[in-house]
Amino acid sequence: MSETLTLRQWLLTDEPTSRRHARLASLYKGWLTLRGNTMAMFGLGILVALVLMALFAPLIAPHDPYVQNLGNRLQPLGSPGHPFGTDSLGRDILSRLIYGSRITLYIVTLVALIAPVAGLLVGTVAGYVGGWVDVILMRVTDIFLAFPRLVLALAFVAALGAGIENAVLAISLTAWPPYARMARAETLTIRASDYISAVRLQGASPVRIITRHIWPLCISSLIVRVTLDMAGIILAAAGLGFLGLGAQPPSPEWGAMISEGRRFILDHWWVATMPGLAIFTVSLAFNLLGDGLRDVLDPKEGSQ
Question: What span, in angstroms and rounded, lies between the C-alpha atoms of 88 and 281?
Fold first, then answer.
């Protein structure tokens, strides 16, 4: 018990003894703030459950999500062996939802790795270099921002071809402009700081200044924005799947499941409603977690 208290006191001290100590203390204080936000922890719990469900899908799913049984088609909720019923081909909806979580996490992870990095690179280069480089990069960004995200994604997928990888690429190509705008705005403020001038006088190259001194200060705002944008990314992926331009049959992608169930929405509403509720739940979880992270990483904006 005493060791736990000593560790807690060490993490909560106002006088860190090293850079590593200061970093660990900051992370621990941020975790305490996040833990105090009930709704953020609720969202985090849903996302943890989603990850575990995706990892252990073969052990959790009661049936094979691809096996068809036309004699057992369109079974209602609560049917024996099918808690969420079956679809028009007799496939278990619960099993397809569980395996569909893998596709959702796959899309979210890839977009979160591509779009923010591209936006951060474009925004920081434009903000730090300035001049004609800034003008060109920001005008390109404005062109992307002028189109609705889903419409632009549809155009890219139509050009690249249907498929989940092309859908991820299309969503990433439409998601980076807001991150570029945010990174540029912060870079314009940071580059005028005294410590940036001091680093420049010491002979640091522009690449080193951007990567070692500007990027770390943009990361916190970027993380908050990425978390809040996850709901829109999931909806965009579901929209492409609904239109048949995302994951292709028989993949248990949630948007494609809604598209299939829309034909039976009046008489067999659960076929489209269950994947719709899954999309709603995961999107809500990301929004709740994003609000909590904003309070931790950007307390000024979170308190407004």
Answer: 24
